[in-house]
Amino acid sequence: MPPGDEAGQDALPDGLLLRICALLPPGAVIYTVPRLSKALAAWAAPQRAQLRAELRAAVALNARDKTSVRNPAVEAFSAPLWALQEAWPALTGEQQALAAERAAFHGDVAALGWVLPRLARRSRCICEAAAAGGQLEALQCARQHGCPGGSPARGRRGSASWPCCSGRLPRSRPAPPTSTCVA
């Protein structure tokens, strides 16, 4: 049992829990792992710092490259649904819209289905982020919740022909999710 963890006799062995945490996506490493125990928070601290540094560097590099269609803030990771629910009241409208775009890009349909009814304004950026990430189920969920669908001016998905409100969209495609849209 990790030091400082009084979870009881049924807790998972340290080694097994660390192996599980090592396999989690970046959003879960940042938000979830530190809440499991003090020892796991210490283990996750370097990964969290590295992810934040990589995001800052990508945003800075992207800001200098005016021809890029990438948006590292959207591409980075999707926050877990419980973290969005907890932070939602304190988020600005722009942060809420970014959370929706992140969820759409990464195909987190559960988070997207929760976020969309709470957004003050739904924009085509959400549909375009889903399309840029290759997430058909997220695109369908966004359209089901009334997001206006953008249409490509010309060319391929993820190219400069998919303009977004923020002016840039990511190109990489994460693995598809298994969750379904919550209406």
Keywords:
183 residues; mainly alpha; 2 domains
- The helix/strand class is mainly alpha
Shape: globular
Number of domains: 2
Helix share bin? 40-55%
Largest sheet: none
Mean pLDDT: 75
Task: Specify the number of helices.
Answer: 10
Terminal Cα separation, in Å?
Answer: 41 Å
Return Rg in Å: 18 Å
Write down the secondary-structure element order.
HHHHHHHHHH
Strand elements, count: 0
Uncertain residue segments: 152-179
Strand content: under 5%
Write the layout of secondary structure elements.
Blueprint: H1 14-22, H2 26-31, H3 33-36, H4 38-64, H5 72-75, H6 81-87, H7 93-106, H8 109-115, H9 124-132, H10 136-144
Helix pairs in contact: 7-8, 7-9, 9-10
Structure, described:
The protein has 183 residues and is mainly α. It contains ten helices and no strands. Helix 7 runs antiparallel to helix 8, helix 7 packs parallel to helix 9 and helix 9 runs antiparallel to helix 10. The protein starts with 13 loop residues before the first helix and ends in a 39-residue tail after the last helix.
Outline of the structure:
The protein has two domains: 14-62, no CATH class; 69-183, no CATH class. Helices cover 52% and strands 0% of the residues.
